């Protein structure tokens, strides 16, 4: 090459700012990876200083006309709404076309984009069609990972390899002679300068060996096949099956990487399987979108059974009759996005036997058991789902499973919103409310990290912990629960720090029956009874908490209980700061007690010897 190749990253600046400069880091690392693989400097031009589209961009393209210049569009919903980004893509498509190339645009699919997955059929976006027709780099999951992870580094290395291979290809000259079609007919070339985005997309599909071939299924005999199964059988790896509206009574077995996409509005393409799986997935990769699945009959089967590989299920409506709507197991790692999962006689989704999976933006509701059940060392990720109105729990996590549960809304379930039973998940930034059990129930050896959640208006406690469970609960807002904020009992333990515990119907913190929690730097206020209630041989350590404005005492200790309370503030409670009853015990040091309605202390004569007090500040 006579000129050093360069790249140009086309993106919306807000997307980079929102992700704290991650796209800038991506740009730098990709350029470095190309340099490692070639031994030569490779520059990716990034508009960091609000340089508008115009002369400088045009000059950079013109300077590299003898080399391979690449466009790297970062695809988000904002990309197709940006005039500058659209101009950059349109200009480069024409540049690429004029050089006889179809490998110089390297799209990075960064955030789910309706124009890509659900194009407007009445007014399609031609540029979005171009991008959808290309082999893009799917960065939607990787966006949430640090660049130091091995899979991120491998993805960058693979992308750099594609750039290097494109550099090494000789650019084809645009043929001036007429093309010859499959039957020998002479077809004149289309004018490059007047080609529309849709025409360019169509030609790129013809040129690219990796572009998907489509098979049309139509129950009115207007397609290639009458049944989806026939189309799946005829499809080659990488092909696409397009299904037109209709009711298809069949079950699908997918053993090769293909796409199956329904046309029309949600609910117009229905696959109904009786006494068999609607889908049994046994391939390395695949995608299903915009379909309605129903599994009926008496056989105990999943509606969709995913036993290996990565299956993307997007914008589907899924119901099951006997087992769960979706079963994920044996190392399978699917992506479930924007689906409605409901009506199962068991759980909406069951993930087990080392299953993985990412569930995002789904509506999971009206299942007879739990919304999502995770067990047997499974390790999924759940983000931004709505899980509600299920017969048992919203989430049931058990049997040594893990998982990341973040930014979900879990509400109105018939038992606890989240049950953690001998499991250790990360639960963060969820809204958990209106369930008939506990908000979060950590049961029988459960653990995990529960942080930054809002937990409110549940019938039992906001957080319940029992039987040697040992969670970490941080920075949660636990309020307005009927039976209390935290209930720790039956030898439950755990660390609870920096939580805001407000306006609960019973005690803010209840500790009993041999429980030994550590509560540190929490605020407990406006409870309908005492702020802290330790009874029936409860124990525990309380450090640096603010316990204020509760309807009864700041702390009530009774029934052979013996808490340790160090450095707490008992302020402005309507009864006593600390009240001891019925053989209560405890160690109280360096606490501050002031402004309480009936005084700082209430200690019966027979309890004085068992209550240690040292260096407390009381009015």
Report what the structure shows.
There is one protein chain. The protein has about 625 residues and is an alpha/beta fold. Among the domains are: about 5-170, Toll/interleukin-1 receptor homology (TIR) domain (Rossmann fold, 3-Layer(aba) Sandwich); about 415-619, Pectate Lyase C-like. The chain is about 15% helix and about 30% strand. The chain is built from 9 helices and 58 strands. β6 and β7 (about 185) form a beta hairpin. α2 packs across α7 and α6 packs parallel to α8. About 45% of the residues are buried.
Mean pLDDT across all amino acids:
87
The major β-sheet equals: 18 strands, parallel
Straight-line N-to-C gap: 85 Å
- Uncertain spans, ≥5 residues at pLDDT below 50? 49-58, 60-68, 170-210
Second-tier CATH architecture of the domain at 415-619? 3 Solenoid
Give the proportion of residues in helices.
10-25%
CATH H level of the domain at 415-619: which superfamily? Answer: Single-stranded right-handed beta-helix, Pectin lyase-like
Number of helices: 9
| Spatial shape | elongated
Enter the CATH topology name of the domain at 415-619: Pectate Lyase C-like
Main CATH class of the domain at 415-619: Mainly Beta
- Proportion of beta-strand residues: 25-35%
Q: What is the SS-derived class? A: alpha/beta
Q: What is the β-strand count?
A: 58
If you compute it from the alpha carbons, what radius of gyration comes out, rounded to the nearest whole angstrom?
A: 31 Å
């Amino acid at each position: 090459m006579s000129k050093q190749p360069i790249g140009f990253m086309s993106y919306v600046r807000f997307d980079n700012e929102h992700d704290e400069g991650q796209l800038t880091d991506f740009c730098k690392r990709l350029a470095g990876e190309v340099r490692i693989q070639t031994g030569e400097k490779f520059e990716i031009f990034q508009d960091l200083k609000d340089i508008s589209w115009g002369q400088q961009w045009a000059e950079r393209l013109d300077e590299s006309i003898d080399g391979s210049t690449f466009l790297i569009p970062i695809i988000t919903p904002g990309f197709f709404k940006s005039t500058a980004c659209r101009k950059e893509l349109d200009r480069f498509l024409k540049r690429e076309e004029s050089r006889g190339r179809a490998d110089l645009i390297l799209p990075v699919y960064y955030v789910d984009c309706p124009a890509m997955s659900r194009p407007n059929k009445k007014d399609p976006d031609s540029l979005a069609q171009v991008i959808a027709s290309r082999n893009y780099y799917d960065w939607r999951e990787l966006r949430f990972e640090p660049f130091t992870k091995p899979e991120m580094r491998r993805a960058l290395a693979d992308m750099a390899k594609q750039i290097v291979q494109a550099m090494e290809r000789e650019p084809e000259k645009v043929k001036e002679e007429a093309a010859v079609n499959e039957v020998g007919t002479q077809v004149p070339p289309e004018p490059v300068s007047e080609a529309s985005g849709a025409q360019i997309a169509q030609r790129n599909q013809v040129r690219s060996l990796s572009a998907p071939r489509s098979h049309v299924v139509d129950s009115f005999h207007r397609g290639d096949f009458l049944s989806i199964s026939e189309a799946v059988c005829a499809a080659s790896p990488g092909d696409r099956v397009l299904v037109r509206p209709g009711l298809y009574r069949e079950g699908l077995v997918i053993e090769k990487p293909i796409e199956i996409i329904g046309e029309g509005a949600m609910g117009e393409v229905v696959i109904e399987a009786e006494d068999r799986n609607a889908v049994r997935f046994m391939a390395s990769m695949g995608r299903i979108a915009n379909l309605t699945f129903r599994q009926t009959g008496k056989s105990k089967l999943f509606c969709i059974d995913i036993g290996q590989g990565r299956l993307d299920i997007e914008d589907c409506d899924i119901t099951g009759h006997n087992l769960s709507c979706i079963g994920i197991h044996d190392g399978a790692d699917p992506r479930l996005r924007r689906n409605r999962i409901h009506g199962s006689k068991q759980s909406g989704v069951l993930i087990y036997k080392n299953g993985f999976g990412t569930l995002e933006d789904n509506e999971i509701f009206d299942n007879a058991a739990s919304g999502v059940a995770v067990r047997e060392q499974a390790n999924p990720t759940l983000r931004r789902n709505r899980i509600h109105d299920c017969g048992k729990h919203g989430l049931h996590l058990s049997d040594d499973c893990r998982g990341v549960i973040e930014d979900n809304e879990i509400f109105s379930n018939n038992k606890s919103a989240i049950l953690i039973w001998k499991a250790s998940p990360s639960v963060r930034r969820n809204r958990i409310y209106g369930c008939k059990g506990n908000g979060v129930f950590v049961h029988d050896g459960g653990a995990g990290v529960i942080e930054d959640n809002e937990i409110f208006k549940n019938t039992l406690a906001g957080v319940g912990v029992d039987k040697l469970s040992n969670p970490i609960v941080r920075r949660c807002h636990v309020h307005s629960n009927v039976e209390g904020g935290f209930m720790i009992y039956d030898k439950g333990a755990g660390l609870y720090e920096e939580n805001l515990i407000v306006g609960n119907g019973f005690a803010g913190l209840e500790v009993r029956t041999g429980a030994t929690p550590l509560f540190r730097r929490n605020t407990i206020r406006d409870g309908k009874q005492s702020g802290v209630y330790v009874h029936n041989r409860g124990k525990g350590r309380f450090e640096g908490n603010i316990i204020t404005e509760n309807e009864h005492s700041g702390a009530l200790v009774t029934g052979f209980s013996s808490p340790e309370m160090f450095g707490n503030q008992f302020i402005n409670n309507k009864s006593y700061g600390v009240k001891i009853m019925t053989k209560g015990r405890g160690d109280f040091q360096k606490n501050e007690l002031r402004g309480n309605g009936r005084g700082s202390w209430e200690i019966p004569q027979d309890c004085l010897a068992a209550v240690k007090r040292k260096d407390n500040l009381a009015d």
